[in-house]
Amino acid sequence: MKAVDLFAGSGGTTLGATMAGIDVLWAANHNPIAVETHKLNHPQTIHACQDLHQADWSLVPRHDLLLASPCCQGHSKAAGKKRETLKADQSRSTAWAVVSCLEAHQTESAVIENVNCFMSWTLFEPWKLALERLGYALSFNLLNAQDFGVPQSRERLIIIATRSRKPIEIKWDTQPKVAASSIIDWESEHEWDLVVNRVEATRNRVANGRKQFGEVFLDAAYGSEKGGRSIHKPLGTVTTVNKHSIVIGDKIRPLSIAELAQAQSFPSTYKWPKQKTQTKTMIGNAVPPLMAAGVLSKLQQYL
After folding, report:
1. Sheet bearing 216-220, strands edge to edge
2. Residues 215, 149: one domain?
3. Coil/strand/helix, residue 6
4. What CATH number does residue 71 fall under?
5. From first to last of its 303 residues, what are the pLDDT tens digits of the chain?
């Protein structure tokens, strides 16, 4: 199959598609650093750095499969009050690019990835109706990356659009869960801090985590977590900030970029830019390649 990748970011979906035997012809994103990162790792793909609201779809190569991950920040509950801003409105509106591309190309099938809250969007029903009016039957699948061999619990909505009378119904396989311990770098030197130097909320979480898991466990900030997380379970959802830290005794450090990339199932050979903040953002926003590969490999059995 030949595919195009909208909102391709650093290339998680493209890498997963390639692993599934799909040729990604064209990929687009508005962020020049993300596009350069994608190009560095997928030089065989044609790249476009542009706002997809203004895309000239006639320039996109003919393809069998549309892959798209419209901006999810405007839908996510984690955004809090930021979901009520103009920026959030603009973020949500990126989903209409999917409709425009499918209208222009009448692609046989599409896979659209987003957070589950996408279906609570005020314009979700008109968006859904637009795809149906174009002749697509929609299958809604709430899947977790940890069931695809990704060492991370990351729940995502996968919408599969097919030009068929009925929505495609896939029986998904579940792989054994991979522990967070598998992505922790236990060998290299890292910069550690003392738990006592952290803010009270962190100290309290660590104290609770130590009671439950002993001397070695994971701490998670920026959420409702009150304690720790076992290293023998998948990591919590990787985000764009320093959310996860490893605790060993009285020392604590955030997970490194390499560890976060592995938690997203990127291979150690994947090339990232030198800008750490930009890289963390791209990793946090990425579709885990193993999840994309699992979804697309399974989908091809049903098409």
Report:
1. 193-194, 251-254, 244-248, 216-220, 228-229
2. no
3. strand
4. 3.40.50.150
5. 999 999 999 999 999 999 999 999 999 999 999 999 999 999 999 999 999 988 999 999 999 999 999 986 544 555 555 555 555 556 678 899 999 999 999 999 999 999 999 999 999 999 999 999 999 999 999 999 999 999 999 999 999 999 999 999 999 999 999 999 999 999 999 999 999 999 999 999 999 999 999 999 999 998 888 899 999 999 999 999 989 999 999 999 999 999 999 999 999 999 999 999 999 999 999 999 999 999 999 999 999
Please, where are the H alpha helices in 158-275? 200-213, 257-263
Domain match, 126 and 230 both: no
In a domain, 106, yes or no: yes
- Distance of alpha carbon 29 from alpha carbon 255, whole angstroms: 27
Is residue 2 helix, strand or coil?
strand
CA atoms of 10 and 278, how far apart (whole Å): 10
54-57: Cβ within 8 A, 24+ apart: 55/28, 55/97, 55/100, 55/101, 57/100, 57/101, 57/104, 57/105
Residue 202 structural domain: 186-255
What one-letter code names the amino acid at 294?
A: G
